[in-house]
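Field guide to reading this record: the first block holds the primary sequence, the second block holds the structure written as discrete tokens, and the final block holds curator observations. Each block starts with its own label. This record concerns Putative glutamate--cysteine ligase 2, catalogued under organism Streptomyces fodineus.

BLOCK 1 — SEQUENCE
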Amino acid sequence: MRTVGVEEELLLVDPDSGDPKALAAAVLAHVAQDAPGQHVFEKELFRQMLEFATHPQADMAALGEEIVRCRKEAARHAGELGCAVAALATSPLPVSPCLSVNERYQWLAEHYGIPTWEQLVCGCHVHVCVESDEEGIAVLDRIRPWLPVLRAISANSPFWQGKDTSYASYRSRVWNRWPSAGPTEPFVSAERYHQRVADMVATGALLDKRMVYFDARLSARYPTVEIRVADVCLCADTAVLIATLTRALVETAAQHWRAGRPAPGHSVSLLRLADWQAARFGLEQELLDPATMQPGPAPGVLRTLLEHTGDALTATGDAERAEHGVTELLRRGNGAREQRRLLERAGSLRGVVTECVRHTQG
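BLOCK 2 — STRUCTURE
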């Protein structure tokens, strides 16, 4: 059974005002003192962000427990320094990002200018193990049209600098300002993938291969494919649903490759439109169907995803979990819908942030 690991980026905020707090270095120092040798938490591009990574897990229930545990540990360490953590993909309140002390981050700021300073966004990356780079590329080529659906499920960034953006996932619009971000055409082979990465780095526009920010890529550190489209999810159970569906997509794609079934030939132009549609509306209106690239109601597209991955979900014992997760998601909505609902109830974006602090720990 394929193992899955999740990386989540959390926003550090003032528990009373909701304003982002540049305390990541202090939180990490507290972690080092309180739990020496623990390497779960890491700094990110800005000091208002804190990242954690789970261990590889084969059981989705165990993965969910670890995500909740890491979120609670992050909240505990932050709380002892007077701040809190929120699983928000963008800050609803205005913020002036503070760059972390790091030569790499300094290079980004100097090389890319303003777009770097607008990258205070929090994502959720899912790693799924693969047997080889060749299998990994076969998977990447075959999951491309399904990635916008994962984007829509995870969408959790409707607000930006104190305003409603009209998007469900505005984080994705900000993230795609990086020159290497977004969907890709089929690579066909691992050799062509690695050559493409080398050619991109050789242009000098990128610092190194870690800056190849494809929506899905071969991990530079682990024997995994890394799917990078999801916003950090407000609720931990949505993150588990994303991980469950991602593993099923990877396994289904690998099976199709072994059976000699060709990868979908959708153009990058169509994939960008599908991604925009998912980011703009989330689950509230239509998505582009991954098979036809024609619009269809979001619930129907999610049911198509369950059908597409049905055998893989059954084989891992996740079919009932995924079915329940999708049904519950359609009932309650994703993080973007919940944030807008909280705004109506709380009457202010500050109230949204403080309520989302509670939601983060579930």
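BLOCK 3 — OBSERVATIONS
The two ends are 28 Å apart (CA to CA).
The domain at 4-361 is CATH 3.30.590.20 (Creatine Kinase; Chain A, domain 2).
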